[in-house]
Amino acid sequence: MRQYKLITLLIALVMLLCACGQAVDSGSSAPSSTEPSPTASAVSAQPSPDVTLSTTPIAATPESTPERTSEPSAEPAINTAKASNATGTPLSGIVIGLDPGHQAHSNSEQEPVAPGSDETKKKVSSGTQGRFTGVTEYEVNLQVGLKLKRILQDLGATVVMTRESHDVNISNSERAVMMNDAGASLVVRLHCNGSDNSDKHGAVVLIPSNNCTAAINDASKEAGKCIIKAFVDATGAKDLGLQPRSDQTGFNWSTVPVCNIEMGYMTNEQEDKLLIKDDYQDLCAHGIANGIADYFG
């Protein structure tokens, strides 16, 4: 009987020891819910090799990204101004005649220097030529003339030209009559000068001074003053002022105000080389246009 009790006690003791061992194993395998395991923390701290970490904040603060202003740039305003070239512009409704002097081939036939005059002159010559560049005057005259035409049109003027190519045959009297018939408010004849003296340089405006042009002499003079001033302001050319002429066929046949600008001497090395340059021709054209606008202003 005592043996049976002893065996029973031993069995109970063994069962108790087994139960305690299971509890210990179960407690050691369960991670804490409040602290991450060291292994998990180490893994999360290592970035993936395929991921580039950005230092740019996802959402910038208002201070770091100031709002754009709605102030327009100057460029669109300039383009808009260029696009509006008629109503309200300085030369709106005014007809301007441009005569780019000379042509590719001269015409030695004679014509009266003035209506009813017995004195005659060659109908038209081919003009002078660059002593240093070899460029002909009639080429420069037309190049400036076409630039000037565009500028005047942008100012609202209606522009009539005696020629827009070199291969024409139009006499000086015919050019004047063409402008009379077109109802021009002002005619500007475009020329370059020449001289035996290669040191001579500068710009001059010729104006009519004949008895047959008495009705337009004063207005032509006023236009000439405006044009020579604006021209030298724009180009920096020497101001040779105004030169009255009674022998110009293109003047004497005109019934509307007219003047002739000699833009420079193609026999002078500096001016010869300047007059063929596109940039300088732009200055010439803008200067003449400013003078025309001043005259009508």
Describe this structure in words.
It is elongated, with a radius of gyration of 46 Å. Helix 4 (137-154) packs across helix 9 and helix 6 packs across helix 9 (278-296). Residues 19-87 have low confidence and may be disordered. Strands 4-1-5-8-6-7 form a 6-stranded mixed β-sheet, with helices on both faces. A two-stranded antiparallel ribbon has the order 2-3. Helices cover 42% and strands 17% of the residues. A hairpin with a 7-residue loop joins strand 2 (107-112) and strand 3 (120-124). The protein has helices at residues 2-29, 38-44, 74-83, 137-154, 172-182, 214-235, 249-252, 269-275, 278-296, and strands at 95-100, 107-112, 120-124, 158-161, 186-193, 203-208, 239-245, 258-265. The protein has a domain at 93-296: Aminopeptidase (3-Layer(aba) Sandwich). The protein has 297 residues and is of the alpha/beta class. The longest helix is centred in the N-terminal third of the chain and has 28 residues, at 2-29.
Short structural description:
This protein is an alpha/beta fold and 297 residues long. Helix content is 42%, strand content 17%.
Rounded to an integer, what's the Rg over CA atoms? Answer: 46 Å
Under CATH, the topology of the domain at 93-296 can be stated as Aminopeptidase
Distance between the termini: 144 Å
Query: Could you spell the SSE succession in H and E letters?
Result: HHHEEEHEHEEHEHEHH
Strand order of the main beta sheet, please? 4-1-5-8-6-7
Compute the number of helices: 9
